Amino acid sequence: MDSKHISFWNEVHTIIDEAVEKHDRSVSVYISPEGAMSVTVQPWPDADELYDMYQKGRITANDFRAKMGLPMVKNAEKFMKRSFLVQELNIPEE
Asked: Contact at 8 Å (CB) between 26 and 41?
């Protein structure tokens, strides 16, 4: 491996460390069969995006709670009313 690749991997490692430390983003590393590499950093979805994902069946109620940092509860589905979530997440009303 040449110094250019080592430098790239050091930068990728730093990006991943920062994402893990902040707990607020995801990092994707893509390595193509031809040897090309790319790194993508994306913020985690906010409460509205996660709720939309839940409504569309893409995540479960427990997935939503885990991603929002809420405690796990039995029968999480009964807590998935928008008004309850606004109150539980302390989201100011507009």
From this structure: yes
Report the distance separating Cα 94 and Cα 92, nearest Å: 6
Please, what's the b/e burial string for 69-87 (b: 16 or more CB within 10 A of its CB; e: otherwise)?
eeeeeeebeeeeeeeebee
Q: What is the pTM of this model?
A: 0.47
- How confident is the prediction for the chain on average, in pLDDT? 77
Residues paired with 43 in a beta bridge: 25
CB 54 within 8 A of CB 64: yes
| Residue 71: pLDDT over 80 | no
